Every structure is written in C-alpha cells, then in structure tokens.
Amino acid sequence: MSPYKVRRVLDQIRGRTYLDALVLLEFLPYRAMIPILKVVYAAGANAKNNFGLERAELYISNAWVDQGPKMRRFRPRAQGRAFPIRKPTCNITLFVRPK
Question: What quaternary arrangement does the UniProt entry report (predicted)?
Fold first, then answer.
C-alpha cells in the first residue's frame, strides 16, 4: 500500500490512547486502516506479553510510515510496447507507552 494512504490514517491516531485508536480505526472508511489495525493489535499484545503492561493504560506515543521497495510490473501496450507499473509498499512503525 502507498505510504501516502497509510500516513493519512496514522495522523489521526497518533497521540491517542490504545482503546480510542482501536475504536477510531474500526469506523474509518479507508482501506489503509486494516494493516494499521493489525499493527496496533500487535503492539498492544507485545506490551502485555513482553513487559506486563495493561492495554487500557497504553497510548500511541509515536507512529510513522516509511517508503518500502516498489514492486515493478509491466503492462502490454499498443505496438508491442511495455508500460511500467510501480506498486509501492510501506513500512509502518508504531510505539506505545504507558500513561
């Protein structure tokens, strides 16, 4: 997914509590919310299992997205030519902290 699409959703949940971010992500109309929801769930599970923190006490302290490698595909065009298609990918980074 393009980092521009993901960044639009991350800007809305940055600084919110863990539970508020989950509720907000459930009702956003963007397709980018599905991978972000998985990342938020994973961050909460890691905080609980690795550090013994309660999920209700967490907030999203920092979140950003970087551009990943672009997959390159080619589509056939008229007169035997090829048209390049670049499918962008992204790397999502999310930090949670206790209040």
Answer: Part of the 50S ribosomal subunit.
Secondary structure in 3-state letters for the chain: CCHHHHHHHHHHHCCCEHHHHHHHHHHCCCCCHHHHHHHHHHHHHHHHHHHCCCHHHEEEEEEEEEECCCEEEEEECHHHCEEEEEECCEEEEEEEEEC
With CA atoms as reference, report the closest residue to 50 among 99, 3, 96: 96
pLDDT tens digits for 10-23? 999 999 999 999 99
Domain CATH code at residue 78: 3.90.470.10
Q: How far apart are CA 42 and CA 16, in angstroms?
A: 16
Considering only CA atoms, which of 65, 42, 44 is closest in space to residue 53?
A: 44
Is the overall model pTM greater than 0.90, yes or no?
Answer: no
**Domain encompassing residue 55:** 3-98
Q: What is the pLDDT of residues 70-93, one digit of tens each?
A: 999 999 999 999 999 999 999 999
